[in-house]
């Protein structure tokens, strides 16, 4: 009793938040680091029936994981922004080339269209990644659940990657028992997960 808070907790941010709560009529919010954790602090003065301040109530919420996820999200957005610039700049450059050179030969025109198609597909994949992330982070990911035959699913994935596997001189063996039961899952999402784990195209 009577000992200054700062002498007990030795944390200037906490001491300042409590002091601000005593001076105001509203809740005070602050963030501080404690032992490697990120803490969200809410402090509000408590009053008696006469309206006199009798103390302060402080609530601590560990937001370390939220901060980490927020950083991951920012890094992801930065990376996607960087990835978007390349195909966009290439597409813009070729569009300007075609506009400035209407007499482009048929062979060169076909080559340019091929490059533009490839980079437009890359943009489409990036857009799909962003939509998938948004759906997974939402409270309602809108999963289309159904019974999935794993043998059939893995077979489709291997067929889709057949050319890439042959190019890299790789082979894949699916070792599933003949009586493996179906699983309850979103087939499209499961395929996406398998494709993301596959060899780089």
How would you describe this protein?
Strand 1 and strand 2 form a beta hairpin. The strands form 2 sheets. A 3-stranded antiparallel beta sheet has the order 1-2-3, with helices on both faces. The longest helix is centred in the middle third of the chain and has 37 residues, at 64-100. The protein has helices at residues 5-9, 12-23, 64-100, 106-137, 150-160, 162-167, 187-197, and strands at 28-34, 37-47, 53-62, 145-148, 183-186. With 201 residues, the chain is of the alpha+beta class. It has 7 helices and 5 strands. The model has no long low-confidence stretch (mean pLDDT 82).
Strand content range: 15-25%
Tell me the total number of β-strands: 5
SSE order: HHEEEHHEHHEH
Rg from Cα: 29 Å
Tally of contiguous helical segments: 7
Q: How would a crystallographer describe the biggest sheet?
A: 3 strands, antiparallel
Spatial order of the strands in the main sheet? 1-2-3
Mean pLDDT: 82
Q: By helix and strand content, what is the structural category?
A: alpha+beta
Which stretches of 5+ consecutive residues score pLDDT under 50? none
Shape: elongated
State the helicity in percent bands. Answer: 55-70%
Give the N-to-C terminal Cα separation: 68 Å
């Amino acid at each position: 009793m009577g000992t200054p808070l700062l002498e007990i907790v030795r944390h200037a941010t906490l001491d300042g938040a409590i002091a601000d709560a005593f001076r105001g009529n509203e809740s005070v919010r602050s963030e501080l680091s404690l032992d490697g954790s990120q803490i969200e602090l809410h402090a509000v003065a408590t009053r008696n029936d006469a309206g006199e301040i009798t103390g302060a109530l402080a609530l601590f919420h560990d937001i370390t994981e939220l901060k980490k996820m927020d950083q991951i999200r920012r890094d992801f957005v930065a990376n996607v922004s960087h990835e978007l610039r390349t195909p966009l700049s290439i597409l813009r450059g070729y569009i300007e080339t075609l506009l400035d050179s209407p007499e482009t030969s048929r062979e060169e025109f076909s080559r340019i269209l091929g490059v533009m198609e490839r980079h437009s597909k890359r943009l489409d994949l990036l857009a799909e990644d962003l939509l998938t992330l948004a759906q997974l982070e939402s409270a309602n990911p809108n999963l289309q659940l159904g019974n999935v035959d794993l043998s059939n699913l893995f077979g489709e994935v291997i067929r889709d990657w057949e050319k890439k596997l042959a190019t890299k001189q790789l082979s894949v063996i699916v070792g599933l028992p003949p009586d493996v039961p179906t699983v309850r899952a979103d087939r499209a999402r499961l395929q996406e997960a398998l494709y993301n784990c596959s060899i780089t195209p």
